[in-house]
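input
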Amino acid sequence: MLKFIFDHLHSKSPFEETKVLDEDVQRALSWMKQRSADQVMAERERTVLHSVVVMGWHVCTLRAFDQVSEIEKQGAHMWASGECDAWLDGCKHGAREVVRSVNGPLLVMLARCIGFDDADAIEAFREGVRFFGLMEKCNLGPEVAFDAPMSVEGLRDDCIRSNTLLLEQLQESEHAAELLELTRADAALGRMSEPTTIDNVDLGTLRLCPRFPVVQGEHDDGRPKVRPVDHFSWSAPPAGTKKREGKKKMKENSINGRTSMTEKITYDHIDELIHAAKCIYTDLEVSHFMMMHRVMYQCCSHIAVFRWCQARGKQI
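output
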């Protein structure tokens, strides 16, 4: 991987050349260019936050942090004192096990200190979020025109027929053992119930969707790396037929087909990371003797710290 990155920094880039970095990333790179390596490293270790934070029934002062490690110490104290578990006692959904590793009090504290204006994003850990229907806006992309989704009640009424047809067409995958192992691991984390035999399932009270494996490389011992995919765009053919009318029609009558979003979600991709790393390697004149993993580490850590110190809007 390192050789691949190093070789391509000296050749025609296989990544998107027209990629424009986010404004705050450009400012981070400009900030780094104006400072020595020692100054950058020193600033990375210093996060200054001043605030008086009101948390539930008590008021606490968040003093200036000379070291990021102080934040980590305060987070550890919250775990040890039981504050984190108490915060999750307010969970209104059945996925507490999934979010049990979230330090809610620390999230709330830091968000208030930096003036983060989307408290609902943090409360979502306790309140839960929609799984289908009209999804809530999360401000990760431009708004788009959308149609109100059809009700899922029609899917509920068709559970037995849909489930029966799905079970008839399922075939065992060559990676079934790996898929079952991953499913049990998800269950152990509280993401889903434990796998069970079909005899223990009431086919009229739930709607089954297929889970299939996607192979993504190999483990060191040669075993395939398998990623489980839940096919929530699957649906049975229309009643009275056994022939599908195409993928579009199949999706319309699926869980995903009864879901609409008010925005087009966008994410940072490896193109941005490679472009930022190349800027560090070339514009900042990083030594040719420096290992490439150091460049990538600097790219990730410095930009992350800059965004943390300059957090605004929805960029927490």
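quick obs: Residues 48-65, 287-293, 301-316 have pLDDT under 50 and may be disordered.
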